[in-house]
Specification:
214 residues, alpha+beta, four-stranded mixed sheet, 17% helix, 35% strand, globular
Length: 214
């Protein structure tokens, strides 16, 4: 992964039906900068792995806590929740709105961008745009989009890196974009992890994501 000096700043995936998503990208870049300042496995406190039967009981994400695989997390103030994928952890640094997804082993990284008032076509257009995190870290769409009723997926290429995005749609024009990045040989892992995220995503009472096979 690039040094932390190359992963700060803002970026693009710009406008979603009049609602700018620049803020989400900027927050993600701030998280990136914080992430590379900390050891991957460092945590102030750990939350026990949620039992399978308890995955329907989401925990509000709190900064400084590492949440292990199988835990259903909810962003406070929203009805959106997801389950931390197998082999990964989630952590939200202080003063950051969105949590990271961090593998238990390796240097991959996952980010997420919740959106409101977006349409399917808007999401298609956003995923066709380059993703720039500035300071040399950028990704260009690669290949065709894959789409079902519930989600849109797009691969990305970067300098010595690769990425995969999954936009999961909910009721009321709500959506969340999950973005995983790391070495190109990790793409098969990204597909599996995004499938888990897509299947576990819930928007309020709308139920879990459907047909999330990638």
């Amino acid at each position: 992964m690039p040094s932390r000096s190359r992963v700060s700043g803002g970026g693009a995936w710009l406008t979603a039906v009049g609602r700018p998503v620049v803020r989400q990208i900027a927050v993600g870049c701030l998280l990136l900068d914080m992430f590379f300042a900390l050891p991957i496995h460092a945590s102030m406190e750990s939350v026990a792995v949620a039992d399978t039967q308890n995955e329907d009981r989401p925990l509000d994400v709190v900064s400084g806590i590492t949440y292990r695989a199988g835990t259903r997390l909810r962003i406070p103030g929203t009805g959106w929740s997801f389950v931390v994928p197998e082999g990964w952890q989630s952590n939200r640094p202080d003063d950051a709105e969105m949590p990271f997804l961090i593998p238990e082993e390796g240097k991959d990284l996952g980010m997420m961008f919740p959106l409101a008032e977006v349409t399917r076509e808007t999401l298609r257009e956003q995923l066709r745009e380059p993703l720039s995190l500035l300071h040399g870290l950028s990704f260009i769409p690669s290949g065709s989009q894959v789409e079902t009723e519930a989600w849109i997926a797009q691969s990305f290429e970067g300098e010595e890196m690769a990425g995969r995005a999954l936009a999961v749609m909910g009721a009321g024009n709500a959506a969340v974009i999950y973005f995983l990045m790391g070495p190109p040989q990790q793409m098969a892992v990204f597909h599996s992890v995004l499938e888990q995220l897509g299947q576990s995503t819930r928007f309020g009472e709308s139920g879990p994501g459907r047909d999330a096979g990638l």
